[in-house]
Amino acid sequence: MFSSAAPKFIRSCGVQAWKHHHRCFPNVSVLASPKCSVHHESSGRESCNNSQARKAVHVAAAVGTACLLGASLYWKAQYDRHEAAEFSQEGGKFRTGLPTYTLAEVAQHKTKETRIWVTYKNGVYDITDYVTSHPGGTKILLAAGGPMEPYWNLYGVHKHPGIIKIAEKYRIGNITERPPAESVSVNDPYGSEPARNPVLIPSSKKPFNAEPPALLLVDSFLTPNELFYVRNHLPVPQVNLKTYTLDVEGPKKVLKFTYDDLIKLPKKSVAAVVQCAGNRRSDMVDIKPVKGLNWGAAAIGNAEWSGVRLSDLLKQCGVNLDTTTKKHLVFEGMDKGPEGSVYGASIPIELAKSLKDEIILAYEMNGKQIPRDHGYPVRVIIPGVVGARQVKWLNKIYLSDEESECHWQRRDYKGFNSSIDWHNVDFDSSVAIMQLPVVSAICDPPAGTELEEGSEDVTVRGYAWSGGGRGIIRVDVSADGGKTWHTAELQPNGQTPYRAWAWTLWEATVPLPEGHVGPVELVCKAVDVSYNVQPDGVEGVWNLRGVLNNAWHRVTVTVPPPS
Amino acid sequence: MFSSAAPKFIRSCGVQAWKHHHRCFPNVSVLASPKCSVHHESSGRESCNNSQARKAVHVAAAVGTACLLGASLYWKAQYDRHEAAEFSQEGGKFRTGLPTYTLAEVAQHKTKETRIWVTYKNGVYDITDYVTSHPGGTKILLAAGGPMEPYWNLYGVHKHPGIIKIAEKYRIGNITERPPAESVSVNDPYGSEPARNPVLIPSSKKPFNAEPPALLLVDSFLTPNELFYVRNHLPVPQVNLKTYTLDVEGPKKVLKFTYDDLIKLPKKSVAAVVQCAGNRRSDMVDIKPVKGLNWGAAAIGNAEWSGVRLSDLLKQCGVNLDTTTKKHLVFEGMDKGPEGSVYGASIPIELAKSLKDEIILAYEMNGKQIPRDHGYPVRVIIPGVVGARQVKWLNKIYLSDEESECHWQRRDYKGFNSSIDWHNVDFDSSVAIMQLPVVSAICDPPAGTELEEGSEDVTVRGYAWSGGGRGIIRVDVSADGGKTWHTAELQPNGQTPYRAWAWTLWEATVPLPEGHVGPVELVCKAVDVSYNVQPDGVEGVWNLRGVLNNAWHRVTVTVPPPS
C-alpha cells in the first residue's frame, strides 16, 4: 500500500552502494575516487564517466550490513525552537583529545568492513553500530564516507538537539580541513552558476549535470525542485527579469511578452515528467562504450509545472496551429555556447497540433518560481517529450519549414541500431527523439543492498512512465531474474490514460524462495496503455550515444548467510 | 528499391514451407493433415491448432530446392481473348492413359524430395523441374500439393493458353474425385457464410477465421479485399440493405441512419491497418500453450476504408465528444451468438476524443463495397486500435459510463504477464487492449526457404506498424540472429508520423558471410516515432491468451551446400 506522498520510511534495509553516489559524490567521492576522470565529450563538456570505480564500490558495499527492523527509534517528540537553534551552533564542534582525519581518510570508510564514517561540521562519527537503529532506514548510508549536512538539510526532522546527542556518542574524531573553495575566474563562463543541493550527484561540472540518488525519487510523486536532475548543455544564463522578453513570431508580427505579461495571462498547471534521453545510459556502457554523461536511473523527475498555454500566445500572434502550413515549431534558449550560438530545439508541427493546449511556458515548478537550473524565468514544457526539446531560459518561439539547426537537434539525441558506430553514423538518416518510449526503474532497494538475514520477501519500489501521454497500466517485478513475475501495485497519478504526462510510482513485495541465501536479481518492466513493453536486454537497444535505454531494469541485491 | 505497389516478382527463391499454408490449407492440407484437430475454445469456436504438423512440414520443406535466378521466362505477350476463353475450357481435362491419383496422394508431394505436384481441374502435374523457371518465383510453391486455381485466379497473367501448354508438359495424371461439397444444414447458423478466396488459410471454419500466406502481404501497400485476414467471432449476419439502419444514440434522441442516409453524407477515406490482437500467436505456442486461433504473421492487413465520419453522426445526435461526461463510446454489431447476444466493443472516451474526426463508419474497403466478411454494410474503423474494437456489421453506437459488457471486451483481449495462467487470472485486473504496440514481421522469404546455392546476400521484405498513429521510423534486419543489424529501406506510406494509421512496407538486402552454408536466422525489429521498440523475446511477452506478440520476428532459411 502506498501510504502518502510524504517520505515513507522503508522496511527494506541494509548497507548499500549507489552507482551514482559513489561515482562522483560531491565533496566526498570526487576526492576519494582517483578514477573519476575528466574527459572531453562530443559536445565539449566535462564529465565523470567512471564505471570501473562504480563497479568496485558496488561490489565492496554489497558486503556491508545494517538492519532497522524492530530497532527503530523514531524522533517524534515536539522540539523546542531554542534547542534547535542551539543544536545548529553546538553540534559537530571541534573536540579536543580526539584524533584528526582528512576528508580523504573519511571517504575510505563506507562499508561495514571498513567501518562507516560520516562527518558533521568538524566532527567525525563512526555510525557502523547505529545504522541498524536509524529510523530512516537505508537512506543514512547515502552519507557514508561524507558529510551528513546535505541529508539533514533535506530531512528537517534531524534538526533536533537529541539527534546530535546521539551522534556525539559515535564521535571518533575531528576534521580540521574544509573542502577547498572552488576558485572562480572572472572569465569563466561558468562563474555565475546557481547553488546546488549537494545531494545531487554530478556527472559533469561544467556544464553542470547531476542526478539525485534514485532511492530518493520514490519518496514523493512530485520530485522536489532541489532534487530534480539537472541537464545543462551550456553555462546557466543570468537573466534580468526586468528586461526579459519572450519573443513569439507570428506570420505578420512578433510579440515580445515580458515576464509581467506572462504571469497576467491565464495560468495552467500540469504534472509532467521531464526525462533525459540518456537516462540509464550507464547500463549501456557495460555492452560497449558510448559517448555521453554516465547517467544512472535518476535522470528523470516529475514536477508540477505552471505557466501560460503556448496556444494562447500563438493566437495573439495570429498563428493557428491547425491550419498553418509550416512544419516545425522552434524554440530558442538564452544559454550560449562559446561561439555565441544558443541552445535550441524544435518539434514537428503534427506533434504540436496534437498537444497544442498542453504545451505550456512554465514559470513555476512545484508552486515555486522555476529555479535557475531548470530554466528561470521560463521554460517550455512539452509533455510526453524528451527533456532536450523542452528548452530552458526560453527566449524565442517561431514556426519554420526547417527543424531547429541546433547541434542537439540534428547531430545528437537520435537513435540508431547497435551496428551503427562513429565510423559509419549518418545523423541525417535518423529522426530526432521526441516522444519517449515506455520505461521503468527500480529505485529501492538500490543495487548492492544486503537484505535482512533470513528475508522471506523483498519490497521493491520504482517509477514507470511512457512518452506521448500513454499511461502505465502494469508493472511486473521479478525476484528471480525474470523467470517469474509479480504485478506491482500502481500509485494512481490522477491523469487519464491517454493524457498521462506524469509518472506512475509502484511497489511490489515479492517472495523469495524459502531459505534463500545469496544474490537476488530484481527486475522490473512496465506496460503502457498502448501495450508497448520494454525490451528485454540492453544489447538490443545499445546505440553509440547511449540514449533511449528502456530495457528491463535489473538490480542485484543479496541475502546474507545466517550469522 | 521499391518498384511499385503492384506485385513484384522477387529475386529470392527456393522451396519453402509456410507455417499457415501447411497448417490448414483449404481443400488440400486439411485432408492431408490428420493432426488438424477440431477443439473447443474458450469462446466456443472451432479451430485448427496444429503446431506439430506445422513444424514437421516446416522442417521437411526446408530441404527442398528451387531457383529462379537467371532462368526467368516471363509471360509478357498480349493474349487473345478467344484463346483465353478456350484455355479455361480445355486446360486440365481428363487425359486417358494416365494414372489417377486421390487429392490426399497429391497432397503428399510438396517438396523436391517427394516431387512437387499440383492440380488444375482434373489434371495432376509434377512441376518439380519447372519451379526454377517460374517467373513468379517462390509463389508457385504456395500451391504445392494442392490446386493451382486459387493462385491463377489471383494472378490473371496465368489465364493464357500458353500457360496450360507449358503445364501439360508436366502432366503426370488425373484426379477423378472432387473435394466433397460441404453439406449445409438449414439449422446451421453458419449456413449462409460468404464465399471466400481459397488462398486464405483458415485457422477455424465455424466461425470462419483465416489469413493469407504472409508472402502475399508485401506485394502491395493495400491488401486486396479477398486476401485480407478474416476474424469472425460468430456467424456472418445476413443484412438486408433496404431495412438496415445504424442507430446512434444521443443524450436526447436516437437517430436511425439508413444506408442511403450514410452514403449521402460527406465521405472520408483513410488507409489504415486492422490487426488481430492474436497476430503471430503461433510463435507463443512454442513457449507454453495458449488459448486462441493459431495465427501466423498475417492476421493483419492494410486497406483504404471509406465512409462517414463518426463525429458527423454524433453532432446530428447532439453529442459533443469534447464535453461529454460519459466515459465510453460503445459499438454493437449484428452478429449474434446462440443465446442471442451480439458482438460489441467500446473505447474509452479519451481515446475517442483524440481520434474523433478519424473514426469512420466505413461502407467501402479499397474502393469496393465492404465485403460481408469485413462488415457489410458498415463497420467502424478506429485507426491505430486493435481489430476487436472495430465492430463489423455495425448496428448501434451509444455513450455509456460503463465499457461494453461483451465477453470480448471484458473477458478476452487483455494482456497479462507470463506468470498469470488460467488458474490465477483475474480479467478485471487488466485493461482491454486498445492501441497496439509496435510490431513487424518478415514476410519474404518465408521460413524454411532454401536460398540459392552460393548466395552472397538475402533480400528480406516485410511490414511494420505501430498503434496510436505512431509512424515507423526504422526497421532493423539481421541475417545472423540479431548480432549485426542492417537498416531497411522503408516504403513511404504518405501519412504523417503522428497520424500514421497505415503500415510501412520495408526491404533490406543483407549480406551473408562469404561462403556461408547452412541455416541463416533472419530477424527484424521496428522502431516507431515514439522510439518504442519491439521486445527481444517471445518469453517476455507470453500470456495465456497469446495476444500482443510483438517480439522480434525470426525466420530461419538455409543456404544449401555446393552441389
Automatic annotation (TrEMBL), chains A, B:
It is found in: Mitochondrion intermembrane space. One of its GO terms (molecular function) is metal ion binding. GO terms for cellular component: mitochondrial intermembrane space. InterPro entries: Cyt_B5-like_heme/steroid-bd (IPR001199), Cyt_B5-like_heme/steroid_sf (IPR036400), Cyt_B5_heme-BS (IPR018506), Ig_E-set (IPR014756), MoCF_OxRdtse_dimer (IPR005066), Mopterin_OxRdtase_euk (IPR008335), OxRdtase_Mopterin-bd_dom (IPR000572), OxRdtase_Mopterin-bd_sf (IPR036374). Pathway: Sulfur metabolism; Energy metabolism; sulfur metabolism. Its main location: mitochondrion. Its EC number is 1.8.3.1. CDD domains: eukary_SO_Moco (cd02111). Residues 98-176 form the Cytochrome b5 heme-binding domain. It is an enzyme of class 1 (oxidoreductase). Pfam families: Cyt-b5, Mo-co_dimer, Oxidored_molyb. Keywords: Heme, Iron, Metal-binding, Mitochondrion, Molybdenum, Oxidoreductase. The keyword Nucleotide-binding does not apply. This is Sulfite oxidase. It comes from Batillaria attramentaria.
